[in-house]
Amino acid sequence: MSDQATLVIAIAAVVALGLVGWAVWAGMKRRRATALHDRFGPEYARAREQFGKKAEQELEKRVERVHRLHLRPLGAEARDSFAAAWRTSQARFVDDPQLSVAEADRLIMDVMEARGYPMTDFERRAADISVEHPHVVSDYRAAHAIAERSRRREASTEDLREAMIHYKALFQDLLAIGAPEQVEVRQARM
Q1: Could you tell me if 150 and 108 are in contact, meaning their C-beta atoms sit under 8 angstroms apart?
Q2: Could you give the CA distance from residue 8 to residue 85 in angstroms, rounded to a whole number?
Q3: Cβ distance 44 to 55 under 8 Å?
Q4: Distance CA 134, CA 151 (A)
Q5: What's the average model confidence in pLDDT over 23-30?
């Protein structure tokens, strides 16, 4: 075989190996994206919108950070106490919706703290919640935004009612983790 033919074969082999390597890398990247999408659900799309190509890195950092937190389930006594506080706050809604929403916001933070989440700024709390509660983190963001508007006296009673519904979704998720059975917060229809 001539030197030229050997060179052509060597170049073809290098190109073929490069294409195989690229295909393997692209497949791994696709699987990683699919796994993150499956894990984070709607939060994946939000992260893609917010972080662009760095979204997957951000989501993986969240997972690592939350796994280092050593989150803990609530004991039965703590769950019962938080559930009672929720019912009290919810019952107060009729007479004082703003106070009820402020209490719900505080109660969510208390539950998070009891479970082991750090009480940093809101965006960090929401990012941390997204790891274990990806389907209700949007509820948390919506409720918190309404609570902020309420503090400025810019939220209607209907807005406040929506905030309570959003807070309830996260609250139930937070209380249920590690519970022997799913915790249902009894309530009158809002």
Answers
A1: no
A2: 76
A3: yes
A4: 26
A5: 68
DSSP structure class, residue 8:
H
User: 20, exposed or middle or buried, with CB in 10 Å at 0-12, 13-18, 19+?
Assistant: exposed
Residue 104 has a pLDDT of 96
Whether the Cβ atoms of residue 155 and residue 100 lie closer than 8 Å to each other: no
Q: Which two tokens stand for residue 83?
A: 């559930």
Q: Which 8-state DSSP code applies to residue 153?
A: T
The conformation of residue 95, written as its DSSP 8-state character, comes to T
**pTM of the predicted model, to two decimals?**
0.74
Domain spans, the chain = 3-67, 76-176
> 178 pLDDT exceeds 70?
no
* 139 close to 170: Cβ distance less than 8 angstroms: yes
Residue 21, pLDDT score: 74
